[in-house]
Design goal:
The structure holds two protein chains of two kinds. By secondary structure, chain A is α+β, with helices and mostly antiparallel strands. Chain A contains nine helices and seven strands. In chain A, a hairpin with a 2-residue loop joins strand 3 and strand 4. Chain B is mostly helical. The chains are: A alpha+beta, B mainly alpha.
């Protein structure tokens, strides 16, 4: 039976002032046996159930849809549930929480700021006209514009990887701006002045300096950088050229 | 996020737009500069010839456009690089005004250098 070695970064918030000054951080190694295949998330389950019940991590859907299990696995942002250990080579599998994020415990990051910024861009359809009798219609071409941004699962990988976020705590970050784009390109959205000032500012789209770490980090292979550049152009079209959208 | 943060962050569009506009001015202006000085044969390369060309209204406009565009593009680009090194809030405002003051001084120095041809 093949075995995988997990090298997991541990963080214990109750041992922050321990004597060796590591802030309660250490790496623990675990050996996980498996039969035909094993995802990193399944490996973490095995460790938690059979080897060390104190291991903490987030997960929910196990199908790469919810975005809860984004982690830094062998130096790459990945979803633990869709990462097969067979694709990670023969060496130990290093599992760390997403870098540059406050850690609650072990692999659990504090996502408070991330979701506060997400809410800032009003991530919902805004309508000003009277509701139609049936559904709001949308042409296939207009729907096609949403293909990329609707795949965002808010895992936080792009946000964690963005140097502009590291330098400016109030910068909205790629995930929130991609979400703003998702609703700004939506033909059903009628927001005129509601959402615009929330991303069209120094700590919104203009703080993006096209470093494109977010594109590299995204486990769903989306392109937040391109979306942010579109938002910059959209602000000019709307504020200077008077376009409605 | 706090409403105050959004309010104090207002702006940014003009700097972003001008960075693009000055980029175009620089590409066109520098291309013209190379063509005029190296490709077109505009007479003998002498002090009087060059001075005469620099005093032509068209070249005065081009020179000042290049001076302004170059200074703005360089300093705003520098500002964007520096912003990624942790400038935020008050330090960001001070950085922007500091670079603005430097830009005004640089434009003044450039004007001083071009002035003799304007009054020749």
């Amino acid at each position: 039976m093949p075995e995988a070695t997990f090298r997991i970064k541990r963080h214990n918030p109750e041992k922050l002032d321990d004597q060796n000054g590591t802030g309660g951080d250490r790496y623990d190694e675990f050996t996980v046996p498996y039969e035909s295949s094993l995802t990193v998330l399944e490996g973490l389950f095995y460790i938690q159930e059979a080897l060390d019940g104190s291991l903490s991590f987030r997960y929910c859907c196990r199908a790469a849809v919810c975005g809860s299990c984004a982690m830094y696995i062998n130096g790459t942002y990945r979803l633990a549930c869709q990462t097969n250990v067979r694709h990670l080579g023969d060496g130990p599998i290093t599992v760390e929480p997403m870098p540059h994020m406050p850690v609650v415990k072990d692999l659990v990051c504090d996502m408070t700021d991330f979701f506060a910024k997400y809410e800032t861009v009003m991530p919902h359809i805004i309508r000003n006209s009277a509701p139609p009798e049936k559904e709001i219609m949308q042409s296939p071409n207009d729907r096609k514009k949403l293909d990329m941004p609707v795949d965002c699962i808010l895992c936080g990988s792009c946000y964690s990887s963005c140097p502009s976020v590291w330098g400016e705590g109030n910068y909205l970050g790629p995930a929130a701006l991609l979400k703003a784009y998702r609703f700004e390109v939506d033909s059903r959205d009628e927001a005129r002045k509601e959402r615009l000032p929330r991303f069209d500012n120094e700590r919104g789209s203009y703080r993006c300096h096209t470093i494109t770490n977010c594109v590299e980090a995204c486990p769903k292979e989306l392109n937040p950088t391109e979306a942010i550049q579109w938002l910059k152009g959209a602000a000019v079209r709307r504020r200077l050229l008077g376009r409605a959208k | 996020m706090r409403q105050g943060v959004i309010e104090e962050s207002a702006g940014g569009m003009w700097l972003w737009l001008l960075q693009r506009v000055t980029a175009v001015v620089l590409i066109l202006g520098l291309s013209a500069h190379i063509v005029v000085t190296h490709v077109l044969n505009l007479g003998e390369l002498s002090y009087d010839n060059v001075a005469g060309r620099l005093a032509m209204p068209f070249f005065v406009v081009v020179d000042f456009a290049l001076l302004g565009a170059g200074i703005f593009h360089a300093l705003n680009g520098l500002r964007m690089v520096l912003l990624d090194y942790g400038f935020s809030g008050r330090s960001q405002t001070m950085l922007s005004w500091g670079l603005f003051a430097f830009g005004v001084a640089a434009f003044g120095y450039g004007t001083w250098a071009l002035w003799p041809w304007l009054t020749a």
